[in-house]
Amino acid sequence: MKEEKYEEARKIIEKKNIKDTVTTSKIQQQIAKLFKEIGLNVEKEFLIGPYVLDFALKKKKICIEVNGFTHYYNFNGKINAKTTLKYYILNKLKWKVLTIEYMDWKNKSKEVNKKKNKKIKKTC
């Protein structure tokens, strides 16, 4: 049943030619700067199908997504359907999805963020 829903959603996306909107937030710029500082060579705003990935390690099929307010229904932390579908499709395409939550990033110091990026670098 889940596979049928996935196929149906994929066909709708292709038929309607739905594309992600490219927006680079201040936090994405900060994260890009930190990736550069730690020597992690990521592609920014990488296109895959109808989606734009915030950051991608193409050869390893790892994407790093910054989940800002538009990724949630409200402040309860529940990811919205559009983002859920995007992550589901990326997983079906054998991409590993890592996320950086806006509120986590906003509430932590720069040093903590550097540690998180080092952890991501180890994963990659």
Automatic annotation (TrEMBL):
GO biological process terms, semicolon-separated: DNA repair
InterPro entries registered for this protein in UniProt: RAP, Restrct_endonuc-II-like
Domain RAP: 62-122
Protein name: RAP domain-containing protein
Source species of the chain: Plasmodium falciparum (isolate NF54)
